[in-house]
Amino acid sequence: MTEKNYKWWLLVFLCVTFFLELGTRQIYNAVLPQIKIDFLKYGVSDAQLGMVGTIFGTVFGFSLVGSGLAADFFGRKRVLVVGTLLFSTGVFFSGFATGLACLIACYGVLNAAGQCCVAPPCYSLISQHHDLKTRSTAMAIFQSAVYLGVILTSIFAGSLAETGEGGWRWAFWIMGGVGVAWAAIMQLFMRNTPQPVAEGDEKPSMKDAFLALLKKPTAILIAVAFGMYIYAQLGIRLWTPMFFVREFKGVGIAKAAFHAVFWINLGSLVGTLVVARLLDWIGKRRASIRLEVSALGFVLSALPIVWVARTTDFTLCCVALATLGLANGVYEAAHYPAMFDCIAPRYRSATTGLTGCWAFVFGSAAPAVLGWM
């Protein structure tokens, strides 16, 4: 297979993996109202349920540093396959949870430790196989797997949860099993693409990657904004299904799980695909466009959150979520291309891990804080 063909087949492999990663991450959010009901006999509070998400975010963030460097040192395919196997195993055994401890161990720790191994090698592989003519488009297609995974998994998990006590467990068991099978398929059919290293270069150390980041003030500012963005995303995505069930009369678990993710991800999908094409087109003439659009999307993403919180009409709340998703799509289409414009190719996997670590550790407080509130 030629490189021209393989780069798109590789994108298919990476999209399915991202679909499974983000889809399984959404299961807990979608079935949280039923978990709350089933765990009432254990006296579990909202703050404790939110703590599962906080531990996930913390473990995920700290592990991103190691996964990014591991992708550079041990091979991106190997890290991707092992990570998929880990998070799928964690998701599968989460279905056996009878209390908070098992959810924290399987979903919060094992699942997070595996999921952190997906993004760094994926973004690095895409940036290597796709040049500036197709990179933003490829990353937008890759990002679209997030929206499809979150929407379809939420519908699936919410429907199972609404069947009654214990129905939510099947969502973990089925999705976890599919992930284990997909890890085996990747091992058999994906190429092991070596890192692009110039002649005489050594593989970068953690210190090298960190110094490369610190030497780029623009990259630091992009990372700070990313941390604030992730804080908002983790809080909203975990608690919106529960918010719908409690705030709007007649909204059940399945309906809440669907609407809580459909509108925001539909808006994000449209925003990402449209903006990505514009970035590829305008980027040939204006080098700074990715950074400018990243900053614009970041600012726009803050405004609809207030609308979501204050509306008392369910339909208007869905419109607000779609508007929020559109703004998120503008930001997400430009974020990684803007970061990669600042960072040398040999440091991109490690930089993705370092900036992701900061963002998720900072943002991990949101689920527990909102649960306490």
Describe this structure in words.
This protein has 14 helices and no strands. Helix content is 82%, strand content 0%. With 373 residues, it is mostly helical. The longest helix has 36 residues.
Choose one word for the global shape: globular
Q: Provide the residue-averaged pLDDT.
A: 86
Biggest pleated-sheet summary: none
- How do the helices and strands follow one another from N- to C-terminus? HHHHHHHHHHHHHH
- Counting DSSP E segments of at least 2 residues, the number of strands comes to 0
**Low-confidence residue ranges:** none
Distance, first to last CA: 55 Å
Secondary-structure-derived class = mainly alpha
Helix percent reads: over 70%
Oligomer: single chain
Task: Using the CA coordinates, give the radius of gyration.
Answer: 20 Å
- Count helical runs: 14
In terms of DSSP E residues, the strand content is under 5%
List the helices and strands and how they pair.
Elements: H1 3-38, H2 46-74, H3 76-94, H4 100-115, H5 119-129, H6 135-161, H7 168-189, H8 206-214, H9 217-247, H10 253-282, H11 289-310, H12 314-342, H13 348-363, H14 365-372
Helix pairs in contact: 1-5, 1-6, 1-7, 1-9, 1-10, 2-3, 2-4, 2-13, 2-14, 3-4, 3-5, 3-7, 5-13, 6-7, 6-10, 6-12, 8-13, 9-10, 9-11, 9-12, 9-13, 9-14, 10-12, 11-12
